[in-house]
## 1
Amino acid sequence: MSAGNAAVLVRRPGHPELQPRGYAQRLRALRIGLGAGVPVLLVVLWQVASNRGWIDNRVFPSPGRVVTEVRDLEELGKLWPNLWATTRRILVGFAIGAFSGIVIGILMGVFLIGRAAFEPLLNALYTVPKLALLPLYLIIFKFGETVYYALIVTTVFFFVWISTLEAIVSVPDGYREAVLSLRQSRWQLFRHVLFPASLPQIFVGLRITAGVSVLIAIAVEFSYGSTGIGYLIIQGKTLFIPPQTYAGIAIAALLGIAFIGVVDIARRLAVPWAGRDRSISRG
Amino acid sequence: MHIGRTRRHAAIGAVLILTIAAASCGSDDDTKSTTAPTSAPVTTTAATATTAATETSEAAATTAGSESTVAETETTSASTEDSTDESTDASTDDTGGAAAGEVEGCGPESVTPIDDISADREPARCDAGAPAPQPLAEKYTVRFSTAFKAEFVAPILLGISEGEFEKENIDVDVQELGFSDSVPLMASGDVDIAVGGTEAALFNAINSGIDIKWALANFSPPSAGDVSIPQTGLWVRRDAFTDPDKPDLAELKGKTLASAVGNGSSIAYPIEAGLEEAGLTLNDVTVQQIPSTDMVQALENNAVQAAWLLDPYWIAASQNPDFVLVATQPPAEPIGGLYFGPEFLKDHRDAALAFVRAYVRTVNTYLSGDYQTDADIMAALSTATDTPVENLDATPALTFDWEIRGGTTDRMQAVFIKLGSVGYTEPIPEDQVVDRSLYLEAVGQAAG
């Protein structure tokens, strides 16, 4: 900014321009530092609160106690089988639900008739709490492992379907017109423009759905069955073993982070042109 | 442009305000919905519909572990019961406080030998209207939690609707919350009394230093012990046995048993007793967690071969010739009841005693014998439990029994230790779990 009456705005090159590499490194360090530091700080605070008696240890175990509980669960042979059970359910349910959601979303996005016919119905079904379908699925799928898969598939499908449909429909008209002016076929339009242009948003939907699929798997395990991280959590509550409950919660959180991370890696491989997630805005 | 941006901001602001308003006017503490916190734009709410009109104190509700903070009031507060509290029953003795611990209307039948668990034992009783009320000097609100407002908590529900608690100058604030969810609240002093089964959660809580005491037992099923009479109990598929007319429980080895709550429930005790007679233990069967509402289906589908069916689910099973009852609750030995929080007993023993007095008086006055023949009582129960009278009549009248049998907690802990449901190997002594002094004092008997 200049002094006096001059109406000229001066913008001088700053750090981002003069030392781009250093600036990028500092920004990256800041992201990692804060991203890891804030949770660590909260855990430290939790431990301090427990040590000082600000929270009731009998009811809320300390982080240290939670860690020893995880070790105890492993020694008892309860950790890995239950973790695998939940992970398997999430992977299968997510794969099937995401695939069908993408296919249906694309079909409805491309074909107006499909959208007109099914969108209101699917919108209505979307709002049904999926866990309320548990008794129905127990009967349909005869109480097997399929019940878990079915509930996760149902939940994942709706999330992915909506974001895929929106992604296809919101590809700018300019792109379509460009292809049509080159007299390309509908298939060319889809393969070279619509699909790639909508992939970034599809992956945003997949990332959100990854978290939700962990959630729904654990929620089902609360009510039904005797395996899984959800079962460990609810058993800890029912038997009043708070360390087991919180160990289960911590494991579920880590599982969620891991799964979202996997989806994010897949996104970077599939959509390299979309760039890094810009959730921290530049000044 | 300028106007457009303002409108955009106004629209965003309106949406935000509406969302916050909707969220804050949303479900309160008593709903049984599982709300999952998520970064997704839409939250997946799920109503876990495992409510059951149960008789036993097995907490079958699977609420997610969200803490519901009960409003903490020490003095006057509105009771949450909607029935009018005018006491219509004029049969109270107002003589009050007889000499040297004696209580008018409570004679030798008001206490029974605690080690007597014979099937034909009569429960302790006083005359109707006894023990007489002794109102507290200052009104106290008892914060009480139960998983369900069902027939097994009739002494509390009727005590409220018939004004028995009011006569003691007590308000009862009823929260629908399972026992294991109530434990942290009892530790913090936010819940005074919780209803439940004598389950592993109770023993684990006491073991971790929360001094909860079992102060009142609940009931025994009238036909317990007789498997020829259909009732709550372990129902098994006939085809699981080679000779269905003479079921040999040893053949359950390796089979799957459905339980709403699992190896920590109070029903592990009678199931284990039944299996032990056949040389098995619960560790020899696969226990599968299945919601109570779906157990009969699971049996029909052969997803499980055995299930502990509560009221009223056993009715459907009893009408199906493919199922047979092989074990029941123990006769004349209650395995559940009312558990009093440590702060309540320590700081408000007078209120605890008044509560127990009203509870015992309600049993003596309204719930003695076959109360199902009394239309007024059934109408009051129907209103309090929100269940039609016909449904209440479908299951037999309970034998309410406030006394706690000697040795029950030792026997139950032995089972839990064997199953690994508790985090210790030496049973907690009975005097650290049970407190009989309140009901004994209420009926004028010396504490043993």
Note: Chain A has a mean pLDDT of 90.
## 2
Amino acid sequence: MSRLRKSHPTADTSPNPPLLAQGSDWTFEELDRCDAEIGRVAREYGLDGYRHQLEIITAEQMMDAYAAIGMPVYYHHWSFGKHFLETENRYKRGQMGLAYEIVINSDPCIAYLMEENSLAMQALVIAHAAYGHNSFFKGNHLFRQWTSADSIVDYLVFARNYITECEERHGLDEVERLLDACHALSNLGVDRYRRAGSLSLDKERARQQEREQYLQSQVNDLWRTLPPRPLETAITPEPRFPAEPEENLLYFIEKHAPLLEPWQREIVRIVRKISQYFYPQRQTQVMNEGWATFWHYTLLNTLYDQGRLGDGFMLEFLQSHTNVVHQPAYNSPWYSGINPYALGFAMWRDIRRICESPTREDREWFPDIAGKPWRETFDFAMREFKDESFVAQFLSPRLMRELRLFAVLDDDRCTKLAVSAIHDEPGYRELRRKLADQYNLGSQEPNIQVWNVDRRGDRTLTLRYFPYQRRPLSEQTPVLLRHLATLWGFKVRLEQQAADGHVTLLGEHVMERRR
Amino acid sequence: MTVRIVDRRLDSRNKSSVNRSRFLRRFKTQVRRAVSDAIAKRSIRDLDSGEKIGVPGQDIGEPQFHHGRGGVRESVHPGNDRFSHGDQMDRPPSGGGQGSGRGQASPDGQGVDEFLFTLSRDEFFDLFFDELELPRMVKRQLARINDYKLVRAGYTQSGVPTNIHLLRTLRSSAARRVAAAAPYNSRLRELEEALAVALAQNPPDEAVLLQLRSEIESLRLRRRAAPFIDPIDLRYSNRIRVPEPSTQAVMFCLMDVSGSMDEARKQMAKRFFMLLYLFLNRSYERIEVVFIRHHTAAEEVDEEAFFHSRDTGGTIVSSALKLMTEIQQARYSGSQWNIYVAQASDGDNWGGDSEVCRDWVEQHILPVVQYYAYVEITDGEPQNLWEEYEKLTRAHTGHFAQQRIRTPGDIYPVFRELFRKRLT
């Protein structure tokens, strides 16, 4: 792999500073020196992250952290035990190297270094996680908006203690059943479009409605002497509840499930909050990994150009780096979709190229950024986008050609698959739109909303599924309805509303917890 | 500013062990079934390791709302080497996923594969003992080597007064006193020589003599002032505890393999033998196992043949007992062998043979063995062998035990006496 032609941010000042990172064994002093040097270069590039902290852990602890989706503290649940066993198995069989790094979006940002890694790997991880991911966490609007880095660890500690307390008080089985149900619904437990903090407005509205109801009751009093008209009231359809469909299932459960105890609501809330915390990560995988990869590559190459790193170090580093950004072709036996590291890294590099040496094509496609300073463009792109919009905005024709992208249409009404766009002049825009859609969680995850609650009758909860591109729900749906019914406490129905407005019943689960 | 580096390697080693035990707890039935299968495959001697077991994948899935197969999907792939716009191709076979992108049914599609993992030795024992319904004390005792003996391991400078080693202590006391006196000795020698010279003068200078004498006297006093025993002289015998599985034992497994002993009964018998083996394994350093199977005639076989081959025909139990005695006299005579016998049968015996058995056990076997355990795996009425053995139970409590069993939970009482002896 060719190294980037770089511009020296600083000239070499000292004639012969000692090489960093000689040999493969690391010591704390050397880690410290590496971090200081990488940090110096990062500051010269203007990277801005939270303070960070490096933690040395063993392979086993890395697997632990893996099992608890990377968090340093987490509540206990059998599924984490299962993930641990899975990871351990694959690791022992050698099918999988452990992750180089886990980094936690918190302030201070915590980056884990595995003790088995060589010094070169540690340097790579420091550059990747402690400077790359860290600055992304701090800058990107989704993370700024949805996560509070300063309090997440505290919240997790609270969650673990709270759930442990519930287990002691109400029994393991009870809590486990509740958590199972919440986990099953967790990907429908996020607010997609609005910030959770805007509750004050809702409260305001609620208060206003209360006032209205009060006035109304006064009015009714005045009219009580009139004979009632039972026929007409029976005919008026009961207003739906909730008045607007609610996409956040767990939120709805937490606020409205009739029979949940307060502690159960709190646990629902915990799962919902944590799910929400991870939502930005799921939306920015390509950008985030690409960003971190771009920066470890750039920072370490800069250090090399300044004469601070030896050739041996660079060879080891480049070998790991190329493994990370390897993208097998569609017909390779190792192909398993687009590698987010590869795509992200290629895109960031391409943006820099467009800024620094644009071609005529680039000027035509990217008039706003072609020839502009690349660091400013980078910060803009990093702050304001998510994967979907990032691809839609910045994927260049040249990169599509380089990756030789093509789109395949799979329509179950046709007997064959069709190639719907390739990397050619008429296909660029199509291809880019399709790839962007692939990263749109809104279309990748089923759109299911809380539609109605039969408040006067048997309290049946009705959900409505709005299929995207006629895609059906997976066959696990009955199990999920059962979980939902556990939380709701009454009958749960799932309807499907097709594009033409036609509504069909997909399934229901009968449950009666009332005495 | 230097970065903060925290070394976490030493803290909270087994963070996920709670989650792991939760996992085992949650899938206890499945895991138990798997352990049961594993026991069937294992040798009874091979108990001290963990076990790799599998539970069905669909039982442990974590469902989420996802799209299923079908509808319209479009996916973008890299590495185009032959397609142009509008090309058509066949769907790849489902599950392959290549070329068609999201071919798999569900992204978390753990599917139906078995979920494999390794149970640690302790977890394996837990489940095994659970099945056998062992009392807790016994479980603890079996799962651990807890027999220690104290062996000498040199001397230390600290300890309890009863362990003071006098010889060593006095030796270091003497050495210290010699060393402490050394500087005075050379000075004394000089003074004594000077005194001799002074005395030889005629007439002696009284003032000099007095001075020399007083100096010699004070040096002698100081030399003597070194204490006879100082705390640093003390030496204690050091003893350390080492696990002690003491000596050797032989375990005879006797089993009826006539037609009526089916596979399920043999598996039950296997657990019975395993439990005894496990017990012996904790108590003895070396254990030999002899497998004797019998129908009308008895033979010594290896473990594989013992548990898995079948014969038909009648049953003469005494043939096995006699063979056992033969083997015992030929190979395991003498006092260095602790002999245990475990006999399993379904209770059938040739008419008239049962009395022979009882006599033989009483005359030839019980005098040489530590423990004789008999299980009858049956649902039916007790038969004459059981009745004859009952007389032995009464006469030899503590050495002979018998039990009729239907489930693995019934096995433990056979060993109750045996384990009780160890516990008190």
Note: Strands of chain A lie at 52-57, 102-104, 109-114, 406-411, 417-422, 447-453, 461-466, 492-497, 503-509.
